[in-house]
Amino acid sequence: MINMKHIYLDHAATTPVDPDVLDAMLPYFTERYGNASSLHSQGTAAKEALDESREQVASLIGADPDEVIFTGSGTESDNLAVKGVAMRHGSGHIITSQIEHPAVLQPCEYLENKGFDVTYLPVDKHGLVDPSDVHNAIRDDTRLVSIMHANNEIGTVEPVREIARVAHEHEVPVHTDAVQTVGKIPVDIQELGVDMLSLSAHKIYGPKGVGALYIRDGTQLEPLLHGGGHEHGLRSSTENIPGVVGLGTACQLAKERLDGEQKRLTGLRDRLIDTVLEIEEAYLNGHPEKRLPNNAHFRFTAIEGESLLLSLDEQGIAASTGSACSSKKLQASHVLLAIGLDAVEAHGSLRLTLGKDTTEEDVDIVLRVLPGIIERLREMSPLWSR
Amino acid sequence: MSMYSEKVMEHFRNPRNMGELEHPDGVGTVGNPVCGDVMTIHIKVEGDRLADIKFKTFGCAAAIATSSMITELAKGMTLDEAMQVNNEDVADALEGLPQVKMHCSNLAAEGLHKAIQDYREKQGKD
């Protein structure tokens, strides 16, 4: 196993830092270490890097740089959007979906405990939110609609544009968690029409520990962090210049590569999906077309995901599962339950998410190895009788 | 993937006595597919001893390794001895299990006991 090729197919979890991103970041640790608030030349250099990075992020999503603020993560961006708007009002109603990332769901549950009402919209079997459900859920005191751009597990891309249109008819602001879509499919805030959008660096070959929130001019929200008044007073903290430069550079690279990578990954994904579905009782989770170009999510009857993951890992393939057995809480994925799978079906799930270094050969290896693993686990399974 | 001991991984990679017996003297099934673990233990009894044991398991690596380990531990034991083997013994023989797996995936001893009870009931000895 010493010469085994390592195939990383968990890019929805995180990605390696691109060497060009790292090169751009490094001088800001040891040479250009100034505080962007300082007036001396070291501070000015940091401020210039901050401004340029903000332009790079804004450019990728079609925003004005003044509407982008830097945060510590996608999770923080989501928290700021949801709690920030809610706290501005102090009470009221929020609409979200059952398949959001915990970074949105948990703030919503927190707000429920503080007296807010929250509607968790259901999704169809492919994981799609119906914009008419949003329309029907809106109340006079609805403060925010927060629906993710694409789901991190099953890869379904939501009709955010239509949802934003519906919400705006009632003058309700819209937030979208675009952590999984930015850099992978075109994301343009004018086209989407959203008021806030979360993104994260480490999903697009940038560093961990830095994210951003797009906030449309005029959107009213409270900060989570109070202090020196950085980022228009919405996120006090001395700016993480190396991280921000990493995010900016990652956004610029993503913009340059987007068209080519979207096509290339879609091709690899479709070959992976088409061939895996030839396995007996293998099914695709998520939408057959409206899905992320790098996401393939399956379920296999009568086997359990953690065993499948460990077996793949033994062959050098890194993947992910929604099985309860692999979760800290031993609960099946809330996303898989929301699309109508039962707990048993959810156990046999496998997520493969491709990235910029994924090759045709990698897909070939997975396609060669996976059927044998499934066969072996089924031979072992008392639930498989053929 | 280092949450498991090397012993668990070794049994997960190379499970002992996996399969079914054609004419088992006793069968025990434990677990619940909702929890993610189901084990079926088949036993062959000769005299008062477990002459053969086979298992089939749906579940995580811990569930598979505990099933494999119980067959190794109990093979050749008298039925009374086998009834004394508990889930703790199995976990110990595997050099420990992650705490979170102790409850849900450590069912193999119960599966074996059920198979022995099934045999005894069929024999009218209970």
| Beta-strand residue fraction of chain A | 5-15%
Q: Helix content range of the residues of chain A, please?
A: 40-55%
Number of strands of chain B: 3
Number of DSSP helices of chain B?
6
Widest sheet: strand ordering of chain B: 1-2-3
Order of strands, main sheet of chain A, comes to 2-8-7-6-5-3-4
Number of domains of chain A: 2
Write the layout of secondary structure elements.
The complex is a heterodimer of chains A (386) and B (126).
Chain A: E1 7-8, H1 19-25, H2 27-30, H3 41-61, E2 68-71, H4 74-89, E3 93-97, H5 102-113, E4 117-121, H6 131-137, E5 142-146, H7 160-169, E6 174-177, H8 189-192, E7 196-200, E8 211-215, H9 241-276, E9 282-284, E10 295-300, H10 305-314, E11 317-318, H11 334-338, H12 343-347, E12 349-353, H13 360-380
Parallel strand pairs in A: 1-11, 3-4, 3-5, 5-6, 6-7
Antiparallel strand pairs in A: 2-8, 7-8, 9-10, 10-12
Helix pairs in contact in A: 1-9, 3-9, 4-5, 6-7, 9-13, 10-13
Chain B: H1 6-13, E1 26-32, E2 37-46, E3 49-58, H2 61-74, H3 79-84, H4 87-93, H5 99-104, H6 108-123
Antiparallel strand pairs in B: 1-2, 2-3
Helix pairs in contact in B: 1-2
Structural account:
The complex is a heterodimer of chains A (386) and B (126). Chain A has 386 residues and is α/β, with parallel strands linked by helices. Chain A has two domains: 7-15 and 257-380, Aspartate Aminotransferase, domain 1 (Alpha-Beta Complex); 19-253, Aspartate Aminotransferase, domain 2, CATH 3.40.640. Helices cover 41% and strands 13% of the residues of chain A. Chain A has 13 helices and twelve strands. Chain A has helices spanning 19-25, 27-30, 41-61, 74-89, 102-113, 131-137, 160-169, 189-192, 241-276, 305-314, 334-338, 343-347, 360-380; strands at residues 7-8, 68-71, 93-97, 117-121, 142-146, 174-177, 196-200, 211-215, 282-284, 295-300, 317-318, 349-353. In chain A, the strands form three sheets. In chain A, strands 2-8-7-6-5-3-4 form a seven-stranded mixed sheet, sandwiched between helices. Chain A has a three-stranded antiparallel sheet with strand order 9-10-12. In chain A, strand 6 (174-177), helix 8 and strand 7 (196-200) form a beta-alpha-beta unit. The longest helix of chain A has 36 residues, at 241-276. With 126 residues, chain B is α+β, with helices and mostly antiparallel strands. Chain B has a single domain (6-120), classed as Sufe protein. Chain: A (Alpha-Beta Complex), CATH 3.90.1010. Chain B has a three-stranded antiparallel sheet. Chain B is globular and about 45 Å long. The termini of chain B are far apart. The mean pLDDT of chain B is 92. Chains A and B meet through helix 10 and helix 12 of A and helix 1, strand 2, strand 3 and helix 2 of B.
